[in-house]
Every structure is written in structure tokens, then in C-alpha cells.
Amino acid sequence: MLTVVCETPGTLRAHDRPLPDRAADEVLLRVKRVGVCGTDLHIFTGNQPYLSYPRVMGHELSGIVETAPAGSALQSGDTVYVMPYLSCGTCIACRAGKTNCCTRIQVLGVHTDGAFTEYLCVPQQFVHKAEGVSLDQAAMVEFLSIGAHAVRRSGVVPGQRVLVVGAGPIGMAAMIFAQLRGATVTALDGRQDRLDFCTQSLGVNAGVSLGDTDEAQLAALTDSEFYDVVFDATGNPKAMERGFQFVAHGGTYVLISVVGANITFSDPEFHKREMTLMGSRNATAEDFETVLNAMRAGLIPQALNTHRLTLAEVPTKFQDLLDPKAGVIKAIVEC
Question: Does residue 95 contact residue 6 with C-beta atoms inside 8 Å?
Fold first, then answer.
């Protein structure tokens, strides 16, 4: 089977590997679609803090069941999506239902080899039927679930003002689900094309471009009170630190981004606001179901999928996805 391996940062090579041997509790999947995530781009550029090379990337996937364990609810031919966070089920986080931050988590495509391959074995508890959605949609459930999880954690309620800093796919997912909760959403980003997409295709209230006047614009949009909830989805330490100043008194700051750096902030500013600071990692089954319900209801714009390539094209064309001029929002690899 064709498998694409990121051998070192910047180096992708195609290999012909044997089909995997399915363990008794695993499902053998024929991979059909793989979404390209910011994590994959960070792996390719050497900026992912939880990874060792070589690695088969890809954790946003949909596929078809080839074989499943005896007695499984899954059958050959079923269309499925995968929760790529392989949790242990027994640690302190898992016992509390927080499988997304399991102490022994193994994320497909990050800690263990992922879906840039034609066939993949996955423990059956992480494989779910993709009923009522297409293969393309099923491959986009995971990144949307990260945004849905962050919004759920934040406790956004109708009428609140929300700022999302970073208009990449994860930031856009947060925008979508904050709006579905009735919030008024502003996007802050350095790319005007992304801001235009957010206002025109996602319907966010305002898009503000990074620059000398951005703080003044954000103040004007909020009567100088700033935002009840701020989400950072930049993956940039300086941006993450700057975001504290956009949180309203009594507000909440949610860091969806993860970076290999220390983040510092002013304690007096933090305390006078009685600010709530949250980390948000991955997603849970509840968040996946939230996304699937939204998809079935037609609430997720298909325009998010802007680019396509085949698995065989990944070694030569993956680099192109990094070019801002390409206008990539979400690329999907067809296997």
C-alpha cells in the first residue's frame, strides 16, 4: 500500500508498505479522505512540540471498514470517521471523562503513525459510523470538533461578544460554533483574504486586520469594553500574550493554540479583570456529535474545503499548501 512518510522536516517520501495486521480489537480501514491540519503543516516545517521523526502524518480522516472484530457494531463497507485521540481509558483525565487530555494519549499522525496511507488499523472504540454525512464532511469533523470543544469549555452564551484571534481552520471552527451559540463574533488576523472569507462565507460580524490601529478598531466595536470571550488560534507566542489585553473585565481567555514556549502575562491586569484563563485541547465524543448534528442540519459551510490532492501527489504538492497566495483554508487528500 502507498504510504507517505515525513522523514525529517521538509522531507516527504512515498513508500510501498505491506498492509497492516489487524489486532483482535482493531478495525482495518480503507482510508478515503484525510484533511490536512495545521498540525501536519507544523510537522512538515519542524514546529510540532509533541513529535519525533519519521512520522506518517494525518489525523483528520474518513474511510470504509474493511474488516472489524467479531460482534462489533461496525461491518465491512460502513462509512466511518475516526476520533484520532487514542486515550487509555483509566488515567485521572479519562476517569473524569476528559479523554481529550489523557495522560497517556496517543494521537494518530503525531504520537503514532497516521492516515497518509491507504489502509490503517485503529482500535474499534475510536471508529464511528459517519451516518448522514459525506466522506468529505466526515474528514472535516475532527478539526471542527476542536473549535466546538473550545467554545463549549468557554461557556459562550447568546448575546456575548467573542473575539477569535487567528483565522485559520481551527479559528474558523471556533467562530462557527460561537455563532451557533448566539454570540457576536469578530475575527482578528493578518491576512485580509482570510478575514474576507470569515465575513463573507462564515457570516462573522467583523474582520479586523492586524496593524497599528487594530486595538482601536476592537475598542470601537465594543464601546471600549472589549470581549466577553477571546479565543487564540494563532500558534504564535507573542499573539497569545497580546490577547490578554482584549479580554473584558470578568471575561474568559481560551488558548486553543499550543506552542513549545513559555507564555507570560501581567498579573495585575489578569487579576483586576478577574479573568478566567483556559487551555483547550483536542475534543471529546460530545463535541464530535455536536459537529455531526450541525453538518446534518446544513450549518457547516462546504466552502471550508478549498483544495484537493491525491495521496500520490502529497510528496510533491504538500509544500504548495504553505503558500499564502494559494488561499488554502482546508485541503483534503483523496486516497
Answer: no
- The C-alpha cell at 137 is 464532511
Q: What CATH number has the domain spanning 2-140+300-334? A: 3.90.180.10
pTM, to two decimals = 0.95
Residue pLDDT, tens place only, 260-286: 889 999 999 999 999 999 999 999 999
pLDDT in tens, 159-188: 999 999 999 999 999 999 999 999 999 999
| Separation between Cα atoms, residue 183 and residue 206, nearest integer Å | 12
- Contact 244/238 with Cβ under 8 angstroms? no
- Residue 245 in 3-state DSSP? helix
Please tell me the distance from the alpha carbon of residue 38 to that of residue 56, in angstroms, as a whole number: 15
Cell numbers standing for residue 177: 460554533
Buried b (16+ CB within 10 A) or exposed e, 223-251: eeebbbbbbbbbbbeebbbbbbebbbeeb
Rounded to a whole number of angstroms, the CA Rg of the chain reads 20
Burial class (CB in 10 A: 0-12, 13-18, 19+), 125: middle
- H or E stretch covering 187: strand 184-189
Asked if the 147-279 domain carries CATH number 3.40.50.300, the reply is no
Q: Grid coordinates representing 238? A: 507573542
Domain ranges of the chain: 2-140+300-334, 147-279
Rounded Cα distance between 183 and 312, Å, is 42
b/e string for 36-57 if b means 16 or more Cβ within 10 A?
A: bbbbbbbbbeeebeebeeebbb
Cα–Cα distance between 162 and 227 in angstroms, integer?
A: 6
> How many C-beta neighbours within 10 Å does residue 136 have?
18
Tell how strand 79-82 and strand 127-129 pair up: antiparallel
Looking up cell 494563532, which residue turns up?
234
- How many Å apart are CA 24 and CA 17, to the nearest integer? 21
Q: Which three cell numbers stand for residue 326?
A: 494559494
At residue 332, φ and ψ (nearest 5 deg) are -120, 130
Largest alpha-carbon pair distance within the chain? 62
